[in-house]
Amino acid sequence: MIHTLEPILREHPFFHGMEDRHIELIAGCSMNVRFEAGQVIFHEGDPADHFYLIREGLVSVQFAIPHRGLTTVQTVGGGEVLGWSWLFPPYRWHFDARTQQPTHALAFDGKCLRAKCDEDHDLGYEIYKRFMQIVTERLESTRLQLLDMYGNHP
Amino acid sequence: MATILEQPEVVPAGLVPDPMLPMPYRIQRVKQETDDTFTLEILPEDSGKGFSFAPGQFNMLYVFGVGEVPISISSDPGDVPLLKHTTRVVGTVTKAMRRLKRGEIMGIRGPFGTHWPGEEATGRDVVIVAGGIGLAPLRPALYRLMAEREKYRKIVLLYGTRTPEDMLYRQELEQWRGKFDLEIQVTVDRAASSWRGNVGVVTTMIPRAPFDPSNTLAMVCGPEVMMRFTVMELLKRGVAAEHTYLSAERNMKCGIGFCGHCQYGPTFICKDGPVFAFARIAAILGKSEI
Amino acid sequence: MTAERLHVGDNVVIEREHLEHLLLALVSRGYEVVGPTLRGGAIVYDRLTSTEDLPSGWTDEQAGGKYRLKRRKDRALFGYVVGPHSWKKFLHPPLQRLWQAARNGKGLRILPEEEKASPKYAFFGVRACELHAIAIQDKVFLDGQFVDPNYKARRENLFIAAVNCGQAGGNCFCASMNTGPKATSGFDLALTELSQNGRHYFLAEVGTVRGVEVLLLVPHQPANEADKQNTERILDHTTRHMGRRLDTRGIKELLYRNCEHPQWDNVTERCLSCANCTMVCPTCFCTTVEDVTDLTGEHAERWRRWDSCFTVDFSYIHGGSVRATPRSRYRQWMTHKLATWIDQFGVSGCVGCGRCITWCPVGIDITVEAGAIRESDSVKAPADQSKDSA
To answer: DSSP readout, A31-55?
Structure first.
């Protein structure tokens, strides 16, 4: 059965090089979602059962900190991936995600995908390989943020 | 439209009898840009002694009796003999400079150093990546690009700072966004909840910025670690190493290749730089304690 | 007594007792004559009023971190090599005022130094390695986009009477650097001290028209074949008895690819960052500037003084030094001297005079350090590289 989202998935750089049968499997777990500006996608501590491919818009990764209020450490924009907590127990979000602009994304059912990866290890390998790259890139840019490059360092 | 470098009565550096003699300049305005950064606007005391410069070049600024520091020129080359210098307060001289007032006098030597590519950008997309105060030496290049907008294809400015309060030239950036066919994307390393824009290092904006890497000229300026990783992302995206330029910085005492302080590997930043094609310094960029 | 026609390239002979005339001729033409003289247990460069001021009958014994004067059996005037001074102290002075400035009300006036303040020197006794060192500093201060006017004025007024080395010093390696021992260019006159059967005399080669003009005031005879052969024999002997050797083959690339070689850690254990080497080196040219005012604050001056890349402050920027460790600073100095200098100025920065070895308090030897890196070169030469990355 051809899912209407398959062509969109095939086009997206995240899925480049993936076999058709795998894309079909993933498409079965995906759906289109829209958010208004200023909308909470999830809160820290919520069950992490989805991940999102942002198509258009801007999402803030935030922490609610006493006395400092909501602090954004990173934003995720069009073409980027939001969320990997669905991959590992306890499957809970570690931050708030709040849209800064009207946002249009593909949401993927994590529970559904986890089950399919357990059944089809080849699919699992393809998913984990791609998420590994995302996490690595995110870690590297976080390290640069940590360096506080523009600060006055005595 | 007048060409930027056409100016009457200019004295090119090098023909001045002694390049260590400062020329008197009078302060027209001192503008606070952010809490630790300010801009000096100055005019030559002797109106016949103004000089033209190319974007990317720097002057040696002398505060009477205190000392001299190298600072990139950050004004529009079309406005000469007026010069502007944006700098942070980092030491004795810049601290003294910050206390100068309109009408006071200081010494200027210059212009020195290499400049951002001009002709080479014609017919290409131009990507400018600035970090922190790195936007100051790039601003003259932006003025020149906008003065001859039709010569270039897409122009993209990616600008990253520590916080929104540290951004330079905010009003001007807004004006440029509106007036010219110029894509400006900004990001900050950290922000309060009132900030609605991008948060993250400036390198994260490169993969998706709207330019064609196969026909792009890139100009990068900011802290060295920011430039290193920016160049890495640009090359990863397919921008040619030979079309990627950076502006480097080192301690300078003379600005004319005699004191030896600004050496960076085999180069003197005062005369082989500060603007370098990436290929020239690829082997030493990022090497510890060079 | 005097030859009637003298040309550039001619060789003549001056007897020892007539050498004084050479000094007097220079003085009569308005030169301040400076050359080797004994002071404080070393042979330094200072004012000469007569040939009596030369260290007649002295020689120097040099080794790593060691310099001793010893009496010779003869009365040779130039029977030693080089001491802690180099001629750069006259052409590129350790302390120089660049300009003065006066602030009056809201105005600023800069007062440059007067040109006639530049002295007119005659260097008496310049060795071949030193001629090369002067030529190297010429490249720095005269051949670039900017010219140092003080250096230019002193250089233009300069008379050079060179001396060919009759012996090699314990730390000498000019032969390795192709900078000696024979003076081949850059002099007005080049002397070789000869002694035969009790006769003490000098072969003088004329280098320039200025040399001709001065020599015409000195009693001399044409040189004969025997004199010239004697000179060649002495120089050959000097060449074959160099105290040190430096393999310069591919040295630039060698140092470029070995910036993380363990030898840098090794030398760090010994180097004190004392900067002696840069002070005595005849080609080191780094300076710093100091801006000062008087107590009223209305009068300011800018002074230039020698500086050294061995100081922590040398590379200070934005609250810290780029070269914070002594390891990086020694590496910077040696890599500059032997490698990056070539990319910057087209020649090596080292002339093989050995001063840095002699005057290092712990006797660090640049030839040994370079040799150690070459011996365990971290990267194979391109021809030897296998398919795997190094």
So the answer is: EEEEE-TT-EEE-TTSB--EEEEEE
List the structure tokens of B48. 């016949």
Beta bridge partners of C205: C11, C190
How far off is chain B from A144, nearest CA to CA, in Å? 7
Any chains having at least 3 CB pairs less than 8 A from chain C are A, B
Chain A residues whose CB is inside 8 A of the B88 CB are 152
Contact state of A149 with B222 under an 8 Å Cβ cutoff: yes
Looking up tokens 């100009």 gives B219
DSSP state of B191: B
Say how far apart CA C1 and CA C229 lie, in whole Å: 23
Structure-token pair, residue B235: 């090359």
Rounded distance, CA C38 to CA C22, Å?
20
- Sequence-ordered strand ranges (E) for chain C: 11-15, 32-39, 42-47, 58-63, 66-71, 95-104, 107-112, 121-126, 159-163, 189-196, 199-206, 221-222, 287-293, 299-306, 316-317, 320-321
- C-alpha C383/C-alpha C377 separation (Å) is 14
Interface of B with A in 154-193 (CB under 8 A): 160-162, 166, 187, 189-193
CB B111 within 8 A of CB B73: yes
* Strand-pair partners of B237: none
Under DSSP, the state recorded for C381 is -
C-alpha angle A147/A149/A151, rounded to 5°? 105
Distance from CA of A48 to the nearest CA of B (A): 23
Q: What sign for the dihedral angle of Cα B262, B267, B271, B273?
A: negative
Spatial separation of the C-alpha atoms in residues C243 and C173, rounded to whole Å: 6
Mean pLDDT by 10 residues, chain C (390 residues): 77 97 97 97 97 98 98 97 98 95 86 79 98 98 94 95 97 98 98 95 97 97 95 97 97 96 97 98 98 91 97 92 96 98 98 98 98 87 45
Beta bridge mates, B122: none
Within 129-148 of A, beta carbons closer than 8 Å to B belong to 140-141, 144-145, 147-148
Beta strands, E only, C28-177: 32-39, 42-47, 58-63, 66-71, 95-104, 107-112, 121-126, 159-163
Question: Hey, are the CB atoms on C318 and A154 less than 8 Å from each other?
Answer: no
Put simply, whether C312 touches B (Cβ < 8 Å) is: no
Residues of C with Cβ-Cβ distance to A152 under 8 angstroms: 319
Q: Are B35 and A152 in contact (CB under 8 A)?
A: no
Q: What is the biggest distance separating any 2 CA atoms in chain B, rounded to whole angstroms? A: 56
ipTM of the complex: 0.92
Give the pair of three-digit tokens for residue B121. Answer: 């950008």
**Bridge-based pairing state of the strands B183-188 and B155-161:** parallel
- DSSP 8-state secondary structure symbol assigned to residue C384: G
Q: Does B194 touch chain A (CB under 8 A)?
A: no
**How far does the CA of residue C313 sit from the closest CA of chain A (Å)?**
15
The pTM of the full predicted model, rounded to 2 decimals, is 0.91
